[in-house]
Amino acid sequence: MRFLHTADWQLGMTRHFLEGEAQPRYSAARREAVSSLGPLAGGCGAEFVVVAGDVFEHNQLAPKVVSQSLEAMRGIGVPVYLLPGNHDPLDASSVYTSALFTAECPDNVTVLDRAGVWEVRPGVELVVAPWRSKSPTTDLVAEVLAGLPADGTTRIIVAHGGVDILDPDPTRVSLIRMAPLAEALERGAVHYVALGDKHSRTCVGDSGRIWYSGSPEVTNYDHVEADPGHVLVVDIDEEHPAHPVSVEARHVGRWRFLTLHRPVNDSRDIADLDVNLDLMADKDRTVVQLGLTGTLTVTDRAALDACLDKYARLFAYLGTWERHTDIAVMPADGEFDDLGIGGFAATALEELVATARGGDGEDAQNAQGALGLLLRLAGGNAA
């Protein structure tokens, strides 16, 4: 038996740094990742799809987002089982109970809105733990595991949330406890655990049967979200008494969110940064935040700004990561000699240079900006 495990679609997600037409393209890419499950399921012979929580970004969505999302799910073709998670819980405002959702929900889509066992077909069951609020007060999975028999039925847990062995605060009452999961797997009451909430593909423990699929399209920078963009193809051998499992990741995501740390101390460093950015493919689907550190002359700072301005127009987003960017600007001796400025203007220029060298205060920063603008207006002809 083969099925697809996915999670954290978060349809309707917006990213604050995406401006203009980049945000609609990103939203479309998230829907396209869902649509891609149809050809994937057909090509590999998957019987159904389980979505382990956070199908939607939240419960208050524009009608267009709901309708387009349901149409993408319709196109998958095989049965699709949706688990409400922490972003879209089954609370009083649930998108799943809205008039629009219930009216347009395709026949192949089932909302797992009741905790417990759901039959997929004879001999195959889903054991599910939907969220009913954003802050559960108990381990929802442990509750549905209690009393499950080891009777040869193939069972898949579909759940959402953090696992205690991975969470930095294992005392949180809502965490999924590893011990009951391991015990149920060990005695053969369940055979695979499909998890959502962690956006990077992650195998939990050493059984090879507990997985986070990760989000099928990237949602955060790579220093936070190391391995997104996948859907898991899961095989369970129903004929073998031990129900062995194999898991294969298929990459479906098309966007990248990258964090780059670079030293910039001279024109060679700026040229190197320029080359690295230029060589990146698919700039219109790539988000880059830069952590830049170093000391530059005013001339080199102006060159860096010109470089960043150029690539900000080409990438879906490119900007500096303020907390990790620290560039000191120190005017070099004779840097402005070739501008041909004399008289009162030369005196004012000398004062600006002195202020720019004065330190990290607001006056120094303003002076550095003014000197950089002067160089750019002069065509960068200073030495």
Automatic annotation (TrEMBL):
The keyword Hydrolase applies. Residues 1-163 form the Calcineurin-like phosphoesterase domain. The keyword Hydrolase applies. Transmembrane segments: none annotated. It holds the Pfam family Metallophos. One of its GO terms (molecular function) is exonuclease activity. Keywords: Exonuclease, Hydrolase, Nuclease. Coiled coil: none annotated. Belongs to the SbcD family. This is Nuclease SbcCD subunit D. It comes from Mycolicibacterium anyangense. The lineage of its organism: Bacteria, Bacillati, Actinomycetota, Actinomycetes, Mycobacteriales.
